[in-house]
Amino acid sequence: MSLPRLENAGIDAWVVRLFDTIDEANMPWLTSFCRQCESVFDDALVDLVPSYTTVLVHYDVMKLDAGDARQRLVRILEGLAPDDVSADAPLKELPVWYDESVGPELARLQAASGLDLDGVIDMHRGRDYRVFALGFAPGYAFMGRLDDPLVVPRLATPRKRVPAGSVAVAERQTAAYPSLSPGGWNLIGRTPVRLFDRQTEGFSLLQVGDRVRFVAIDRDTFVEMGGDVTPVEERSSQSATEDQGDRE
Amino acid sequence: MSGLRVERAGPLTTLQDAGRFGVRRLGATQGGPADLHGWAWSNYLLGNPWNTPALEIVLGNLSLVVERDATLALMGADLQACLDGRPVKPGETFAVREGQYLTFQVPVNGIRAYLAVVGGFVADPVLGSVACVIRDGLGGHDGQGHALASGDRVAFAADDALSADRRLPSPAEVPTINYQEESSLSMVPGAQVAEFTGRSLFTAFHADWHIDDRADRMGVRLAGPSLRSRVTSMISEGIALGAVQVPSDGQPIVLLNDRQTIGGYPRMGTLTPLACSRLAQCQPGQVVRLQPVALGQAQREHHDFLSRFLA
């Protein structure tokens, strides 16, 4: 780990920059750092946003000034050890019905990779991914990294309506849409699992640092699990996403 | 429970408490009042504690029917509010009776009015907050992240007795703000500020910035000279309220309450919460300036602001 940097993010937040490049090996450090922040800041902690290489730490200005907060962060960094990934990181399995009706870009991935349909599916489900960050929408998990043949850019024209459960890829990442939303990623299948549920403990099925594996299921199993088989709509010609650099 | 019924819904009226905190790591944004100052004062006028839900009314064209007697307070923008035809000004505390009409017409000063009721409006918290975030489908009067629509009801808390716990502010203490005046927005430099060219930094703090018409609860675009950063895109990271990000077109965007939780554009720094409040009252075309402020000073000022309401 290179030397972390602390950058102010306004009157009540610091960005702690632990790494400079995206790497699955970053995540045990970030999750450990977040847990330490929770215990060291205790009720002076307002929010934490871990993401790929950084953690945004939002603290309560009525309880701490910027210097105090900084000192606490430095203390945490000095004693930081990564989480033990081999034992602790939960492996979550996400069932996916890979089918062109719900994953119209399977064809695009075949063309780009030179693989046949089964080859694309086998490669996508053939390895574990790590959750780097959640963002774009509640429960939307950015996972990586994809194997080289599956790397394709985002769609030139995003869809206005991507159905809930859609499993998608873009560049070196993969994700699943928790709810109906606009989106510009390549759709390759659909999961029947609820990814974000306000009634469930923790709310989001996927959390930063999780290991995730996609498991192929057939149409009958998908339906049995409550999946919606409605095909993906044709793409419209107009973008609905507001580009704030933090699109999905 | 009853309170207000919406007869005609304006462009955007939402229920807001202080915001949704502790779940940003799940991708849920903070929401809360875009003008924290106006929202906080609306509750303070009635003796309501911090975090009490109040209505954020944008631009007006709203008609509400009172379904239960209560005491309300109005703060923030002047949207030509009238109670059965009698004008109600920002800063006023006023009694309403069942059957009366409270209407909002067009903005004459600012764009966001805050309507509070003794004890607060009642809604079930979602992920710990009633803050309405439409994009996330969370919070608000119905829990589903919807703005008020015609026919909707929003309930008053059961207890409508004015709190005697503390002295209520006298009319002279209530601030009046001319939101149309050119304002200077305090920004704490930070983040990627060192990546901006010297000329861009000079320009940022000396140019007139025009409020673009692409302005909402997610963010406000500022139109003016183009700013240049040596980095054009970054690995996405957590974004604080008020972050001033500069995409490749060089036109800054100030990110407000409903911003996405992470983002990947270079940032010059972060507006203070009160500067965000001020910005959120600006109409498209208005002019603002950016002014650098030291972290320590900005933090003390916000601490002082909050102290009044949290005492």
TrEMBL record, chain A:
One of its GO terms (molecular function) is ATP binding. Residues 4-206 form the Carboxyltransferase domain. Residues 227-248 are annotated as: Disordered. This is Sensor histidine kinase inhibitor, KipI family. Gene3D superfamilies: 3.30.1360.40, Cyclophilin-like. It holds the Pfam family CT_C_D. SMART domains: AHS1. Keywords: ATP-binding, Hydrolase, Nucleotide-binding.
TrEMBL record, chain B:
Keywords: ATP-binding, Hydrolase, Nucleotide-binding. Pfam families: CT_A_B. InterPro entries: CT_A_B, Cyclophilin-like_dom_sf, PxpC. GO terms for molecular function: ATP binding; hydrolase activity. The keyword Hydrolase applies. It comes from the Bacteria. Residues 25-309 form the Carboxyltransferase domain. This is Biotin-dependent carboxylase uncharacterized domain-containing protein. It comes from Aidingimonas halophila.
